[in-house]
Amino acid sequence: MVMPASATVPMRELVQQMDWSRTPLGAMALWPQSLQTLAELCLASRFPSVIFWGDERVQLYNDAYRVILGAKHPAALGQRAADCWSEIWHLIRDMMASVFDSGEAVWVEASPFSVERNGYLEEAYFTFSYTPARAEGGAVGGIFETVAEVTEQVISHRRLAALRELGEQLAAPGFDEACVQAATVLSHHQHDLPFVLFYLLSEDGQTARLAAQANMVAGAAGAPLEIPLDGADGWAPGVVLQGGQVLVRRDLFERFGHLPGGPWPESTTTAAILPLVRAGAGLPYGLLIAGISPRRALDESYMDFLRLTAQHLSRVLGNVDAYQHERRRAEQLAVLDRAKTTFFNNVSHEFRTPLTLILGHVESALSEPGGTLDGDHLQATHRSAVRLLSLVNSLLDFARIESGRLQGRFAPTDLASLTTGLAGSFQSLLEQAGLRLVVDCPALPEPLYVDAALWEKIVLNLLSNAFKFTWQGEIGVRLRWLGQGAELAVWDTGCGIPAAELPRMFERFHRVEGTRGRSFEGSGIGLSLVQEFVALHGGRVTVDSVEGQGSRFKVFLPSGRAHLAATQCQDEPLIAASDGKQAYLLHAATWLGQPAGGQAAVAALPTEAAPSHMARILVVDDNLDMRNYLSGILSAHWQISLAVDGEDALTQALAAPPDMVVSDVMMPRLDGVGLLRALRRASATAQIPVLLLSARAGEEPMLEGIDTGADDYMVKPFSTRELLARVRTHLGMAQRRRQWARELEGVNAELESFSYSVSHDLRAPLRSIDGFSRALLSHAGDKLDAQEQHYLARVRTAAQQMGQLIDDLLNLARITRQHVHREQVDLAAVATRLLALLAERDPTRQVATTLAGSLPVQADARLVGILMENLLGNAWKFTARQQAALIEVGSTLRDGRAAFYVRDNGAGFDMRYASKLFSPFHRLHDDSEFSGTGIGLSIVQRIVTRHEGRVWAEATPGQGACFYFTLEAAA
Amino acid sequence: MSNEQIILLVEDSDADAELTAMAFQEARIGNPILRMRNGLAALDYLFAQGAHAGRDVTDIPAVVLLDLNLPLMSGLEVLRAIRGDTRIRHLPVIVLTSSNEDKDRLEAYDHFANSYVQKPVDYDQFVQASRQLGLYWLVLNRPAPRRDV
């Protein structure tokens, strides 16, 4: 850029060279002394200063002032102020005039002016003073202005304020919220940021989504809701994301047309796109697109401001990121923690069952004189001990894996013969269970490096799992050579795995709930151990399954030894010397004798041998040994039936209710608590005492047991004597309860026959009293004087009242007996019908009614009909003396439940008597006022009570009463 | 109005029988009322046997007013016997009783009672009920035609 000569020439020379005769000031030589002195002062000053002389305000200025003039120099010299400052003339004209008129100086600080000195309107701020300069005559001849530009200070100050406001918000719950908060703050800083857009990158990094905006409408031109990151159209911010650089676009008008210019009418044509950088590495969180003020140049300090804004937001987003990461971690830990708790619960159950059996058998042997353990008891004890051992081994394996200390000892192994041997050991067990075993393990072309003990656990785990969940068909084991290694497949035709569970099958502690297995036993670590063992071999395990058709587990082991740590390999074949098979088989064998799906009951001890008057106890446990042990203890005193799980027990109990149920808690299909609830629901079994046996110790399950209605609860291992004592107690109590129930039934029957005879025998004489009194009146009426006729009328009234009383009493009794049959009833419709009936019976009365549109409720239609009849009848009766009688029926909320009400503006009553209101025969008004037997509200209360609801009243004497009622149990 | 046809009242209580007669009279029902003290006597009359041997069995009452609580033989048994005999099974039988028990009502209709009326305690209401009964069963209602035996 070539600077014009005038740009460098000192003002003193320019003033000298200027032909002043062509200005209103005239030739310099002719200037008054005052002007000459002033001009000299101005030119000599280093402070930006200018003289506006005369009525025309002709300008003369010094070198320092040229910065303020910008491109206006040199034309401004000798120019009239009105021409030079046309864009702000309206602001300064009057100020100048006042200086001329008053002769007093003016001082203006940081005044905003948009000046056009660099080819565009520029936002600028000046502090200046107008000093009057006297001419020779003493009048003001001109203005001497000293001025300082404070644009930089004002704008820096403003930007700092914006950054400080932004800094006050440091945390947000999410990325979007952080952007919205920042946009809200920045929307107040339109001078520096005519508009702001925040875009967040999508997960795949392909697009950016508009998260927040300031001074722009989301979705409008320039603010699309989503922008692609590649391509050349629109913002095309690709380079910002890759390079982390700031991109300045100066062609916004061409790209988007008009964009808001903040406080200025001009369009914003320039914007900076800045990355919201993620600490560390990776793609940025998103983009900040900032519009650049059309009246400011995008200089270095402007850029710094934008960078600081972006940095700040990056930091906030970083905080959000860290916070969310923390929360996810905490959630994962919580999940793991829960899983571990479940695991320990299960494991404690697993331990307690064999321990109970061992202790039970051993203690009973010790109490015998010989002190020996033999036969079935010895075998059961052995099985339990072996089970404990294998549990301990699994736990140790698990602990080793958890701490990373499990190492294999890999040796070249003939996998086919090892696998065939392992599978074969299940042959006889499967035969007993009626299952087919298919073993297809042809010799492999080369030995594989395998830890035989681990391989044994892999195969046995998969096989016993298959056995556990397969009730019919076959279980297969197949080995195949796949070139790079061998694949073992173990399949079954069992109950399969729900698709949703498949991805979680190898997770630690995960158990599929509610499957039809032979046993509920299991700690939930078997398959995760399989996976760990396979991983240790450098292999992988997968599962596919169709629910109801079967499952197939596949294990792939790579050939060779390159994938294994050299230190863990040896080249001599190892002879596996493990007796692990025995534990698996012994344990799996205890699952035999469970019915397929539980339909068939287990053959119980010969019950015909027991005398029929003996109480019968249903023993429920999914563990065969435990079942045998319990029936062994209990059969000495009572008849025993056996069930293998809750479902089986429920079927049996409903078919033939036992006298007591002794049940395990953790069982497949239906657990002990579920069984208990189901028994309590059915009327035939609701009263049966239930004793739960649990292996889960602690207070909480104890309460759980009592809460669900268990009569008692014992924790394994338990003492035989205590179990017997508790069973005896509960049987005795149940017997007494039954006896009481029978007695109660007897009393009830008596009461019923009593009320029946009341209905007949009391009414008949009443009829005679009334009828013959009436006959007497009509036959001998003329012979009786008024007093005697009055006496007879009294007799009749009394008889009729007593008749009514008897009817009401019988109604009350009937309602107490009646079964409540709930159905959908609209109380508003009932009220409408009843009120119409009342109006028909009593056509002289004028009663206004206000009814809710509909009042649906689940209730016994007949009973609520009687209820409403009584309440509306009362309301009708007690408003008889009212000029403008009003009856309202509606509903309101009380404690979260619908409470219905019948309100009247009648006689009301004193709330002191509210408590007596609902007792039978209690009346608050004497007969001369309002007639009645005092039974109506007792009937209302009985009906409400039968519906498990509540009834209450509010009233004021002389102003009316309101009766509220609910028809369901309180929340 | 068939003045000739009788009303058979089966009622053990003298007072009730008298009241009923009074009420019917007051309700201006002219048919003669024949009262039986128990179910056996009523059946003897209806089947023309025992004390009533030789009576024309096809000459049936206009209506039977039957109490349920009867000595020797309950009202329901009487009702069952009537419905079990083809000659008289169409006979209109009104159960007239003190009881309003569901059980009684159900049993009466189970045995094909034509109507069930509770005797009101209030004599005036009883007269009113009698008048309506008479109007319906003796005037409006058309009995089954006589069966050729």
Automatic annotation (TrEMBL), chain A:
PROSITE patterns, A to Z: HIS_KIN, RESPONSE_REGULATORY
Residues carrying 4-aspartylphosphate: D664
Gene Ontology MF, one: ATP binding
E.C. code: 2.7.13.3
Alphabetized Gene3D superfamilies for the sequence: 1.10.287.130, 3.30.450.40, 3.40.50.2300, Histidine kinase-like ATPase, C-terminal domain (3.30.565.10), PAS domain (3.30.450.20)
Residue stretches making up the Response regulatory domain: 616-731
InterPro entries: CheY-like_superfamily, GAF-like_dom_sf, HATPase_C_sf, HATPase_dom, His_kinase_dom, HisK_dim/P_dom, HisK_dim/P_sf, PAS-like_dom_sf
One Pfam family matching this protein: Response_reg
Catalytic activity: ATP + protein L-histidine = ADP + protein N-phospho-L-histidine
Sorted UniProt keywords: ATP-binding, Nucleotide-binding, Phosphoprotein
Domain Histidine kinase: 346-561, 757-971
PANTHER family according to UniProt: HYBRID SIGNAL TRANSDUCTION HISTIDINE KINASE C (PTHR43547:SF2), TWO-COMPONENT HISTIDINE KINASE (PTHR43547)
Protein name according to UniProt: histidine kinase
Organism: Chitinimonas viridis
Native organism taxonomy: Bacteria, Pseudomonadati, Pseudomonadota, Betaproteobacteria, Neisseriales
From TrEMBL, chain B:
ATP-binding keyword on record: no
The keyword Isomerase is annotated on this UniProt entry: no
Matches recorded under CDD domains: REC_Rcp-like
Residues that bear 4-aspartylphosphate: D67
Domain of life: Bacteria
PROSITE patterns registered for this protein in UniProt: RESPONSE_REGULATORY (PS50110)
Keywords: Phosphoprotein
InterPro entries: CheY-like_superfamily, Sig_transdc_resp-reg_receiver, TCS_response_regulator
Stretches assigned to the Response regulatory domain: 6-134
Name the UniProt record assigns to this protein: Response regulator
The species this protein was found in: Chitinimonas viridis
